[in-house]
TrEMBL record:
GO BP terms in the entry: lysine biosynthetic process via aminoadipic acid
Entry's Gene Ontology molecular function annotations: holo-[acyl-carrier-protein] synthase activity; magnesium ion binding
Catalytic activity: apo-[ACP] + acetyl-CoA = acetyl-[ACP] + adenosine 3',5'-bisphosphate + H(+); apo-[ACP] + CoA = holo-[ACP] + adenosine 3',5'-bisphosphate + H(+)
EC number: 2.7.8.7
Family classification: Belongs to the P-Pant transferase superfamily. AcpS family.
Domain 4'-phosphopantetheinyl transferase N-terminal: 19-115
Lineage, top ranks: Eukaryota, Metazoa, Spiralia, Lophotrochozoa, Mollusca
Annotated Gene3D superfamilies: 4'-phosphopantetheinyl transferase domain
Protein's name according to its UniProt entry: L-aminoadipate-semialdehyde dehydrogenase-phosphopantetheinyl transferase
Biological source species: Dreissena polymorpha (Zebra mussel)
UniProt keyword Transferase, yes or no: yes
Amino acid sequence: MSVTKHIMTSIRWYFNSGKWNPSAADWVRAAQRVQPEEKDRIGKFVFKKDAKSSMIGRLMLRRMLHRLTKIPYADIRLARTEKGKPYLTNELPPDFVSLSFNVSHHGDLVVLAGELACDVGIDVMKLETPVGAQTVQDFFHTMRRQFTAEEWACIRQGTDDREQLNTFYRLWCLKESYVKTLGVGIGFEVKRLSFTLRDSLTADGGNVHSTVLAVDGSPALGWEFSETMIEDHCVAVARKLGGDVKSFLSKEERLHNVSTFQSLTFEELLEGSVPLSEPDELYGNIFISKKENPWST
């Protein structure tokens, strides 16, 4: 198979874990389809909300990897870098240029981006007032060192707190998508990044591809960003392109081949999966006994 048949294959998925209320039996089925060490890690979450997001993220990864690489579901092996980023330990088929993927969750959504032949990172933020913040402006004050003067000027263009907060989250998503693409984790000084927003991000689900980045004051060459709104969440995807990719396709052709986000159901997530362990009813019962979040009664 030629390299060009793979160069821009992409996957974009999302799952609303906030609306997902699994039974004990559903939770057991899900747990059977992730690696035992991940099942144990997920079981340590105190609240259902966090456990659900983590479980869905792992199921998304395994489905995506099985679909793109054709590696048998039971043979897929994932590990984590020192920074906590998942990676595939299996050897890729010889005709693959590369494989990159990333998962993020916030609010009600879990999102995934997968790419062949370029590095990818994704972030999602629910457009809501931050928990614990007395006012939006107080929240901005605590985050003042995370954005450049130009970015703060862009945020302040909003006519009210809501508009300003939405722009804040949009810029934060972009910064996080860049950092996740690099895989460097916490510690990267995001004020080194300055994004220029050229188009509005609307709630109709359309994609914005015009945003540009400067790093330490210089244009970030070889980077492309896609943004969209999904169910009152902003989502940003960063892609770092290699020279081989850019030489094959124009920017318009590359963007045309990027998938739009597809919503998945729980049953769709399990399609093609096989149990990796025996059913653990106690694991399901413990999950059911947990509170949804810290504010649940």
